[in-house]
Specification:
367 residues; alpha/beta; TIM Barrel; 2 domains; 8-stranded mixed beta sheet; 13 helices; 19 strands; 29% helix; elongated
Length: 367
């Protein structure tokens, strides 16, 4: 029996669309290097598969968040450069060296420890260094960056800085003044530091003016088909499509209730479908009464609460020929944009993608 016949749900990942998005970004940023961000299992769609697909078309630099992600990615791609955003946790320098990973150093303490590791190895070690320009999350504070600039010859003697980076806090809004403020802060600090390539833009920054591109951009959500600037049309192709299967079709009368708590009462006779996807698969319970799914391209509202393994939808407007046991119901993808389900769930696209449960198979296709 084929795997597709026993799958209750699946996340289909279109590698052709992924590659197309990578090329779209490359054409937009010109000479800047495009370095995919594949943290959180490739934003939930399968890190190894998408990374190998992108490496096939020229990607040679990747970003992950955790050191274990870097170790796992190194097994799949032995020759690419891998930056680890978390930085250098105490005592982990040997793991970086053993797996040929490059830390993104975020504090003066991390810089000192990495420098000591380089001296012990009697070599210079590569590192990226992050400068905080207003997000107040990760990276050297302004005061610490000034200290580093004053003492660069000493503090960086054993470190080869391969990248200076920062991160925009408001790039999802192209008109937000914080974007320009952070860019200017970054440029001012770079003028005081030893020369090296620089990067400030992730997916949202790629949609800003071209001076934000600098030497490298770090796309994440954009690669996977999400819209990093929801106020503007999405320039990227749909990569991920979440679907479940119709398990049962039933007709209910006026006044019947549906689901736990009997929170949904029918106002007229309805045709309902029970679908094999629930909150254990990553389908938010908040979507009940707010979101929609699609069957045969026809939208269906949720009926009643979402259960652990099941969701019930109002299929009254779906032709009977399409309402069959085993039919595929889309929760996001072609008919239901990722941003729409995120808005209905009162969250962001990033959380929707990364929140899909491991029990949902990731099926990579070339289409």
């Amino acid at each position: 029996m084929a795997q597709s016949e026993i799958e209750a749900a699946r996340l289909t990942v279109r590698l052709g669309a992924l590659k197309g998005n990578y090329r779209t970004i490359g054409a937009r940023v010109g000479a800047a290097k495009v370095a995919p961000v594949v943290k959180a299992d490739g934003y939930g769609v399968g890190m190894a598969g998408v990374s190998c697909a992108l490496a096939e078309i020229g990607a040679d630099t990747f970003f992950v968040a955790r050191i274990q992600e870097g170790i796992d990615l190194r097994k799949a791609l032995p020759r690419v450069r891998i930056f680890v955003l978390d930085g250098l946790k105490p005592g982990t320098a040997s793991l970086y060296s053993a797996n040929n990973l490059t830390p993104v150093l975020n504090t003066l303490e991390e810089i000192a420890e990495w420098s000591a590791a380089a001296r012990n190895a009697r070599t210079k070690l590569d590192a990226a260094i992050q400068i905080d320009t207003g997000m107040n999350r990760s990276g050297l504070s302004h005061a610490d960056a000034e200290t580093l600039a004053r003492d660069a010859a000493t503090r960086l003697h054993s470190i080869n800085v391969s990248l200076w980076l920062s991160h925009l806090s408001c790039s999802d809004d192209a008109k937000h003044p914080m974007n320009r403020q952070q860019l200017e802060r970054f440029r001012a600090m770079l003028a005081k530091l030893p020369p090296a390539p620089a990067s400030i833009s992730a997916s949202g920054g790629i949609g800003l003016e071209r001076d934000y591109d600098m030497d490298m951009v770090r796309p994440g959500l954009a690669l996977y088909g999400g819209n990093p600037q929801p106020l503007l049309p999405n320039p990227y192709r749909v990569v991920a499509r979440l679907t479940g299967r119709v398990l049962q079709v039933r007709r209910v009368d006026l006044g019947d209730t549906v689901g736990y708590g009997a929170t949904f009462t029918t106002g007229k006779p309805l045709k309902l479908v029970t679908v094999s996807l629930g909150y254990a698969d990553g389908l938010s319970r908040v979507l009940a009464g707010r979101g929609q799914a699609a069957l045969g391209g026809v939208r269906m509202p949720f009926a009643g609460r979402i259960s652990m393994d099941l969701a019930v939808l109002d299929a009254t407007n779906v032709p009977d020929a399409a309402c069959k046991r085993g039919a595929e119901v889309e929760f996001f993808g072609d008919s239901i944009p990722l941003e729409e389900i995120a808005e209905a769930a009162n969250t962001v696209s990033y959380e929707i993608l990364t929140g899909i449960s491991p029990r949902v198979p990731r099926v990579h296709v070339e289409g």
